[in-house]
Design brief:
The protein contains 10 helices and no strands. It is an all-alpha fold and 149 residues long. The longest helix has 14 residues. The relative contact order is 0.11.
């Protein structure tokens, strides 16, 4: 049932979070976030945006970190959807989480899949991880021939 609820319209998620917590069902909320992390990229991005807009930054961060388990092309699509919706902070956080758990080469492939539009956010996300992570990313971007580096 929670996987069906995860696909509800994104603006309902913060209200549902509040209701589940009030009912003592915080564990179900965590499971629901996990289910939302496997939504198609547009739905995943909408869920993250709705949580951020409602001031549920902790839940949004958890969702974004769980989302990096998906294939790089889907992470790129989700980051593009977040960026397109004016959610640059969440797009950067998603990309930073990706850099944190994937190799620089995988992050460079993500950038190549998304084109140059995500480069500033990807580099900013890597920079938030560490200066070394950003340097490794830039090197990997150059190796795979991503323009604009």
């Amino acid at each position: 049932m929670l996987c069906e609820v995860a696909a509800w319209p994104a603006p309902r998620l913060p209200v549902l979070a509040l209701a589940l917590h009030r009912a003592g069902l915080a564990a179900d909320w965590t499971t629901l976030l996990w289910e939302a992390s496997s939504l198609p990229p547009a739905g995943f991005a909408a869920a993250a945006g709705a949580l951020a807009a409602a001031g549920r930054e902790t839940d949004c961060g958890l969702l974004l970190r769980q989302g990096v388990a998906r294939p790089a092309a889907e992470v790129a699509d989700a980051a593009l959807a977040l960026d397109g919706a004016g959610r640059q902070d969440q797009a950067r956080d998603l990309l930073g989480a990706f850099v944190r758990v994937h190799t620089p080469q995988e992050a460079a492939e993500l950038a190549r899949a998304a084109g140059t539009r995500l480069l500033p956010l990807l580099r900013a996300g890597a920079r938030e991880v560490s200066g070394e992570a950003e340097w490794d990313l830039v090197h990997a971007l150059r190796v795979v021939g991503v323009p604009g580096v």
